[in-house]
Structure formats: structure tokens, C-alpha cells
Amino acid sequence: MGKTRAFSDGRVSPSYSGLELAEAISRFSSLYPDVSISVVPGTHEELYRMLRENEVHLALSDQRRPFADTYVNDQLDFFGCYVEVAKGNALCRSKNVSLENILQMPCIIVAKKEQQDMERDFYQNTIGFGGGFLFADSLEEGRMMAIGNQGVLPVDGVGSLPACSASLIRLPLLSGGKQLERNYCLFWKKDRTGYYIEEFSRILHEVLPNAKKPSKVS
Known about the structure:
There is one protein chain. The protein is built from five helices and eleven strands. With about 220 residues, the protein is of the alpha/beta class. The protein has two domains: about 5-80 and about 185-205, D-Maltodextrin-Binding Protein, domain 2 (3-Layer(aba) Sandwich), CATH 3.40.190.10; about 80-180, D-Maltodextrin-Binding Protein, domain 2, CATH 3.40.190.10. Helix 3 links the parallel strand 6 (about 105-110) and strand 7 (about 135). Residues about 1-10 have low confidence and may be disordered.
């Protein structure tokens, strides 16, 4: 009888909306009904801090720093980046959108106030957005801002994404003619490895299309 807290951004980050995490939790709960899973959204840095301070057991997030030997860095796969834009926006005339063509458009980021500077730095200096930044407290709020044609909303393409609302279009985000990708992983501390954590990892790899084999804990 234990309690495993799975930290999901969305990320997971707050901009994560894939279907497989819910499916993995459902399968895990069916196999281990006495084990409770709490799913908490947070930015990459929030997830890293809470994992480091033992506030959560697992973090599902993209890789933004070199792998550390004190953690199990369980790589899932490289997943494509997307943006959601309002229907009627001129961008919707194409099947994809180039980062170079939206450099001057505002980027809508889902992040709490205390994490905004770090997220802005990532999207500006690592991804390459440069047209100013707007912030939303939740993915739903970010989508409402996109529907209002206030900017473009980056969305993590991890697994199978649900269909957009009738007011939005989701387009692959390209740079240099290729779709941008992010390396997504499950992270947990090696000294906290246990049967249930490894089982959840196995199930998530199983439900994610094209996911790599689970990492072996040494």
C-alpha cells in the first residue's frame, strides 16, 4: 500500500494535452487499485524543483538540461512541436507554420507569475520566438487568448493530441524546413526507485506510440 505522486507539462507542462497519460493512469489504477496517483501540472522548473526536494516521485517533462547521474532519465521519444492559432488567421492557409514567419507574432505561454521569466527565456533563446510574450495561468486560458487572435499558442505534441476546438487550428511548427522536436522523459531519483514507479514507466511506454523501451535502473 503506497502513494505514488505522478507529476504531469505540461509538461507534464501546463501546455501538455496528450491522451496517453490518462490512459496510463487508468491502466495502472486497474492493476494496482490500492496505489493512489496524484497528477499535478507545473512548468519544467517547478517539476524539477519538486522532484529535487522529494515533493513528488515522478516528473514527466521535456529535457532542458544535461542528464544527471542521480536521476533515472527515462527517455520516451522526441515529439513534434505545434502551435494553435485562431481560425481565420492567415497562418491557417498552410499545412504548417515556420518559426521564421512568426518571429514578430506574440507567443502565448502557460506559466504562473513566478515562472514567467524562465519560460520566456526558454521560448525566446532556445526555441526562437521573438515577437513578445503573453502569459496564461492555464491551457484553457491560453486557448481563449489564441481564439481571440492575441498570438500563437505552443502546444506539446506528446502522443495523440485531442482535436482542437472549432475555433482553433493546430499546425506543426517548423524551423529550417523541419518540424521542431522536444525530447520527453520520465524523471525520478535513483534512490527512490521502486516497483510501482517502474511499473508506471512500463505502462506509459506501452501506451505511447513509438516510445522507446523503458530505461533500466542500474
